């Protein structure tokens, strides 16, 4: 199938009413790997509720990420560390309902929150199963080499996994702040080795957050099956993700440098989401001015 056969690749991405667009094939992990192989960029936004999920889906967003960033965006916390599995389940159910109501096509990815996978593989799969039963189609967990065993354990048992390297917000205290990761040669080499191990362990996707663009590109090119998804990691990754509120220009604190306001030139929210999808697919977001690392 060529990229132009699909709904996502055919502009305009999101004119008209929410949902119920005919012939919209659901995004599967197989479809994501085809997109990676064919070089069609994967456009992802976070979502925390039914209405925004349905609007983002109708605008052509490929995956919706129920991020533990909901602790900051929805709950007003100063970090994601205190987010509970119950909160993640609630918001995953909300997003799932939004897509069911509108026959949505986006793939739902849910974050395993801090403290629900670090203890053991058993603890990780118990938490992951709950997210999958709430409607997630893939779970995401943060961390380097130590997560490889957990990723393999979940993947072998039929749970698609997204890894997450670079700035891992759940360990912000250990990292000393929300700062760029992998700047030094030794840290960059370590991240490349961890990324390859996670690829071999069967991770379908990998978020690279606040990583130098060149390092993110090198990691992307080294992957055998895993689709890299950048946030503040340049344009060389297989896809991009942003926190929905950020790209609409809504933030409780200071906006990170990698954010672009897509609401500014759009008539409405769905238009902003569609402009984001278009910009990611066309490779014009992010551009070089958006990351100073
Ligand atoms: N609204 C929101 N957007 C996000 O992107 C996001 C969340 N929340 N919560 C979870 C994590 C935390 N993230 C963050 C938080 C802060 C910066 C930040 O302040 N960046 C600055 C500092 C860079 C530096 O010190 O080098 C920047 O200018 O980008 C970046 C990512 C990304 N995630
Ligand atoms: C920004 C993405 C990658 C995330 O982890 C979140 O929203 O929690
Ligand atoms: Mg997260």
From TrEMBL:
Function: Catalyzes the reversible reaction in which hydroxymethyl group from 5,10-methylenetetrahydrofolate is transferred onto alpha-ketoisovalerate to form ketopantoate.
Catalytic site positions: 209 (proton acceptor)
Description of how the protein assembles with itself and partners: Homodecamer; pentamer of dimers.
Binding-site list for 3-methyl-2-oxobutanoate: 68-69, 111, 140
UniProt family annotation: Belongs to the PanB family.
Major location (coarse): cytoplasm
HAMAP family per record: PanB
A Pfam family assignment: Pantoate_transf
Amino acids binding Mg(2+): 68, 111, 142
Pathway noted in the entry: Cofactor biosynthesis; (R)-pantothenate biosynthesis; (R)-pantoate from 3-methyl-2-oxobutanoate: step 1/2
Any single Gene Ontology cellular-component annotation: cytoplasm
Cofactor(s) the protein requires to work: Mg(2+)
Enzyme kind, highest EC tier: transferase
One biological process term in Gene Ontology: pantothenate biosynthetic process
Origin superkingdom: Bacteria
Keyword Cytoplasm in annotation: yes
EC numbers on record: 2.1.2.11
Protein's name in the database: 3-methyl-2-oxobutanoate hydroxymethyltransferase
Natural source organism: Aquitalea aquatica
Gene from which the chain derives: panB
MF term (GO), any: magnesium ion binding
Catalytic activity field: (6R)-5,10-methylene-5,6,7,8-tetrahydrofolate + 3-methyl-2-oxobutanoate + H2O = 2-dehydropantoate + (6S)-5,6,7,8-tetrahydrofolate
């Amino acid at each position: 199938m060529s990229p132009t056969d699909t709904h996502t690749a055919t502009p305009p991405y999101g004119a008209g009413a929410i949902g119920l667009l005919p012939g919209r094939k659901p995004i599967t992990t197989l479809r994501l790997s085809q997109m990676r192989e064919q070089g069609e960029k994967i456009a992802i936004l976070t979502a925390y509720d039914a209405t925004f999920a349905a609007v983002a889906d109708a605008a052509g967003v490929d995956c919706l990420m129920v991020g533990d960033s909901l602790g900051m965006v929805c709950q007003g916390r100063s970090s994601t560390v205190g987010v509970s599995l119950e909160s993640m389940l609630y918001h995953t159910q909300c997003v799932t309902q939004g897509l069911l109501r509108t026959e949505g096509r986006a793939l739902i990815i849910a974050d395993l929150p801090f403290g629900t996978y670090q203890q053991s593989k058993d603890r990780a799969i118990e938490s992951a199963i709950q997210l999958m039963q709430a409607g997630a189609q893939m779970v995401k967990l943060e961390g380097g080499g130590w997560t490889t065993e957990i990723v393999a354990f979940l993947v072998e048992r039929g749970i698609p996994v997204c890894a997450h390297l670079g700035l891992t917000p759940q360990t912000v205290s250990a990292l000393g702040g929300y700062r760029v990761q992998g700047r030094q040669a030794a840290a960059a080499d370590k991240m490349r080795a961890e990324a390859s191990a996670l690829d071999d362990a069967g991770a379908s996707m990998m978020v690279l957050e606040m990583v130098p663009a060149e390092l993110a590109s090198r990691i992307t090119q080294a992957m055998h099956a895993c689709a890299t998804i950048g946030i503040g990691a340049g344009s060389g990754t297989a896809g991009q993700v942003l926190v929905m509120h950020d790209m609409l220009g809504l933030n409780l604190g200071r906006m990170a440098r990698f954010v672009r306001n897509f609401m500014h030139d759009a008539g409405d929210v769905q238009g902003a989401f569609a402009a984001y999808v278009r910009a990611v697919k066309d490779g014009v977001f992010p551009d070089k001015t958006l990351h100073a690392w």
